[in-house]
Specification:
By secondary structure, the chain is mainly alpha-helical. It is 61% helix and 0% strand.
Length: 246
């Protein structure tokens, strides 16, 4: 399936075309518009480099802002409609799937390389800000900072889940537009839960297994719900040529 790998042309077609033309594949998506690649003569390496940097600025800031929001609202207790989550589930937990959503939009538009760069740069930016403001954070948040062990367990699990979701999205993008974002969010969320909850609570009296299963159920619901804004943004965030319109 060449459209999943971003191949520019169909190797089975046997025709010869201009190297600057990225042809539509056998199955043409509704969002696809065949267009020529950027003029490589008029844009040098530096121009392309700074262009790539600018393409990452907004995605990185968006992902970093969502991450900060998850931390800032980490003490706002909430309860799911079925009554689950009482006493431990917070608004920060509910905002966390939005970080996967932001990464999927970048992956859809620019591909897996940009999505990985967005994730790593957003984490680096957030960690630098948190380190620089560590003395002021308790005052700004109005509460003490979480235990370092919990912070490391959930933070490392989230980073791992986000990077895994990039891989799943890249491997499953295709004519069914909803497949990649749905499976990527589910895969990333489940991996996050499988690492975070036992890493943070195993060996304690906290019922972490029940919490993990509850949060897995929430991630399933969030993955389906986030397909609505993703579908609405498909025309606003079309994929660049080379991804078959998917």
């Amino acid at each position: 399936m060449s459209f999943e790998a971003g191949v520019r042309s169909n190797p089975r077609a046997g025709d010869v075309r201009s190297p600057d033309f990225r042809q539509p594949l056998e199955v043409i998506g509704r969002a696809y518009e065949p267009r020529f690649a950027r003029d490589r003569v008029s844009t040098g390496p530096m121009s392309r480099f700074f262009g790539a940097v600018l393409e990452l600025v907004l995605p990185v800031l968006l992902l970093a802002a969502l991450g900060v929001a998850c931390i800032a609202y980490g003490d706002r207790a909430v309860t799911l409609p079925n009554g689950a989550g009482t006493g431990w589930l917070t608004l920060g937990h509910l905002l966390l799937p939005l970080t996967f959503f932001a990464i999927h939009l970048t992956n859809r538009r620019y591909g897996a390389g940009h999505a990985v760069a967005q994730t790593m740069l957003a984490w680096a930016l957030s960690l630098c800000v948190l380190w620089a403001m560590q003395g002021q954070l308790p005052v700004l948040l109005g509460r003490t900072l979480p235990d370092p062990h919990l912070t490391f367990a959930f933070g490392s699990a989230l980073l791992t889940g986000q990077l895994f979701s990039v891989l799943v999205f890249d491997r499953t993008r295709g004519p069914r537009w909803w497949t990649a974002p749905l499976l990527a969010t589910l895969a990333g969320g489940f991996l996050f839960c499988a690492i975070a909850f036992p890493g943070a609570y195993m060996g304690t009296e906290i019922p972490w297994m029940a919490r993990m299963l509850t949060y897995d159920g929430f991630f399933i619901a969030a993955s389906i719900a986030l397909l609505v804004p993703y579908g609405l943004l498909r025309r606003v965030v079309p994929p660049q040529s080379g991804f078959g319109g998917y």
